[in-house]
């Protein structure tokens, strides 16, 4: 899985890391913490005196360039759930739901995030000015890209294509190939946390 467009990395790293957190857990989220994956403290509760009911979303605003973030929610009753090292410059939404929230304290240092399983299917969104002709998605633990998941289809500029993946592993590497044979990759994407994967 050789990265062909390494020159794009600096520009992408300076993207907008803000996102919408969506609660599909069936519970009320009482606390929300988002911090850079590079630090060892959670910081302040972003909800303040508010709560986030099931089916509701909350806009999280972050400074430009802070792309790799850890996210922690605390549900009513005190149970918590975490997502680690999410590249929020690559996604518009982070969804919490359909997973068992794990109990845990408020301290971040030394916390361990276990492997998760769920539904990694997603919508591929093409916001480039080129047609995507090939889409390969394979678990990050695999050493090969696998088949073209678009089959005979293509995704034109502005188009969306539903990618169906088997339930189970959440962390995937994704590669698209454009009509001009250029390619772009995303590594270690937690597909169980997002509904859309958008290029660029």
Task: Give a description of the structure.
With 200 residues, this protein is mostly beta strands. It folds into 2 domains: 10-97, Domain of unknown function DUF5300 (Immunoglobulin-like); 118-199, Immunoglobulin-like, CATH 2.60.40. It contains 1 helix and 14 strands, in the order H-E-E-E-E-E-E-E-E-E-E-E-E-E-E. The chain has one helix spanning 9-13; strands at residues 19-24, 29-36, 57-60, 68-75, 80-87, 93-97, 117-118, 122-126, 132-139, 160-163, 168-169, 171-178, 183-190, 196-199. The strands form 5 sheets. It has a 3-stranded mixed sheet with strand order 3-1-6, with no helix packed on it. Strand 12 (171-178) and strand 13 form a beta hairpin. The longest helix has 5 residues, at 9-13. It is elongated and about 50 Å long. It starts with 8 loop residues before the first helix and ends with a strand. Residues 1-13 and 99-115 have low confidence and may be disordered. Residues 100-121 are annotated as: Disordered.
Put the structure in a nutshell.
By secondary structure, the chain is mostly beta strands.
């Amino acid at each position: 899985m050789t990265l062909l467009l390494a020159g794009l990395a600096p520009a992408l790293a300076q993207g907008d890391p803000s996102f919408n957190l969506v609660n599909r857990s069936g519970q009320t989220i009482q606390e929300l913490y988002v911090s850079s994956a590079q630090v060892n403290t959670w910081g302040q509760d972003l909800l303040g005196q508010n709560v986030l009911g099931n089916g509701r979303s909350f806009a999280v605003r972050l400074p430009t360039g802070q792309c790799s973030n850890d996210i922690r929610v605390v549900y009513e009753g005190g149970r918590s759930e975490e997502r680690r090292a999410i590249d929020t410059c690559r996604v518009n939404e982070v969804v919490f739901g359909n997973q068992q929230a794990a109990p845990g304290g408020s301290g971040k240092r030394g916390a361990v995030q276990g492997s998760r399983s769920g539904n990694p299917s997603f919508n591929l969104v093409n916001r480039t000015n080129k047609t995507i002709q090939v889409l390969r998605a394979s678990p990050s633990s695999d050493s090969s890209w696998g088949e073209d998941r678009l089959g005979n289809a293509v995704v034109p500029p502005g188009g969306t294509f539903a990618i169906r993946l088997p339930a189970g592993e959440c962390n995937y590497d994704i590669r698209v190939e454009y009509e001009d044979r250029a390619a772009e990759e995303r590594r270690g994407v937690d597909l169980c946390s997002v509904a859309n994967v958008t290029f660029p």
